[in-house]
């Protein structure tokens, strides 16, 4: 029997490493699922002039970088 430290809230799979959302409110195992989750959120982005920007205007890496820098998620390993 294999034991895991966490369970992915998207897939239901066990995980010993992955993405921790909002300091433990949610756990996501795969990057693709994280990106889908981020795109479903109601984030408010504005450019330098104050114009609202749709979350889907961001490339995957840009969106992940923004969310990480905003401390929305981090990647970790559990023992």
Descriptive report:
This protein has 79 residues and is α+β, with helices and mostly antiparallel strands. The protein has one domain (6-77). Helix content is 25%, strand content 27%. The chain is built from two helices and seven strands. The protein has helices at residues 31-40, 60-69; strands at 6-7, 14-15, 17-21, 26-28, 45-46, 52-53, 73-77. The radius of gyration is 14 Å and the shape is elongated. The model has no long low-confidence stretch (mean pLDDT 92).
Into which percent range does the helicity of residues fall? 25-40%
Secondary structure category: alpha+beta
Strand order of the largest sheet: 4-3-7
Whole-number radius of gyration?
A: 14 Å
Please mark out the parts with pLDDT under 50 across 5 or more consecutive residues, or reply none: none
The gross shape turns out to be elongated
The largest β sheet comes out as:
3 strands, antiparallel
Average pLDDT reading: 92
Instruction: Report how far apart the termini are.
Output: 16 Å
The succession of helices and strands, N to C, reads: EEEEHEEHE
Q: What's the number of helices? A: 2
Strand content: 25-35%
By DSSP, the count of extended strands is: 7
Tally of distinct domains: 1
């Amino acid at each position: 029997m294999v034991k895991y430290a966490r369970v992915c809230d998207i897939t239901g799979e066990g995980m010993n490493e992955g993405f921790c959302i909002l300091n433990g409110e949610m756990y996501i195992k795969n990057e693709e699922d994280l990106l889908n989750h981020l795109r479903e959120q109601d984030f408010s982005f504005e450019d330098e002039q104050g114009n609202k920007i749709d979350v889907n205007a961001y490339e995957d890496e840009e969106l992940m970088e923004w969310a990480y820098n905003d401390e929305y998620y981090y990647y970790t390993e559990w023992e």
